[in-house]
Amino acid sequence: MALYEHVFLARQDLAQAQVDTLAENATKIIEAGGGKVVKTETWGLRSLAYRIAKNRKAHYVMLEFDAAGAVVAELERQTSINEDVIRYMTVRVDAHEDGPSVQMRKNDRERTRRRDREEY
User: Fold this and answer.
1) Any bridge partners for residue 6, and if so which?
2) How many CA atoms lie within 13 A of 89 on its CB side?
3) How does pLDDT run across 13-59, given as a tens digit for each residue?
């Protein structure tokens, strides 16, 4: 089995609970095919570089998992059918990152900078 990262963007008008449900559905698809989800990260509501289907923002979610190629094909098929997902991408990786992803570390740095500015 190979290692993959799957990132999807959900519509901006969804509640966080609905976004979590989308991530759970993706996890169920992977586990039903014999795969294993290593990590799930919700990056939150972020601005898009350009409008996609009349959306200026989207909820970003990343899944790191270990599965066969057929599982990835089924995951992408199910994701493309879902109307709440506006974009998705699955990438095969050599190894998963230890700890939080780059996006999560970026959020932590921004929060720290804001706190530092507020102290002055």
Assistant:
1) 63, 90
2) 3
3) 999 999 999 999 999 999 999 999 999 999 989 999 999 999 999 99
Contact by Cβ (8 Å): 59, 9: yes
DSSP, res 83? T
Q: How many angstroms separate the CA atoms of 36 and 4, rounded?
A: 10
Q: Quote the pTM value.
A: 0.81
Report whether 5 contacts 35 (CB < 8 A).
no
3-state secondary structure of 8: strand
**What Cα–Cα distance (Å) separates residue 14 from each residue in 18, 49, 84, 85?**
6, 19, 8, 10
Report how far residue 11's alpha carbon sits from residue 95's, in angstroms, rounded to the nearest whole number. 29
> Which residue is it, tokens 């998963």?
96
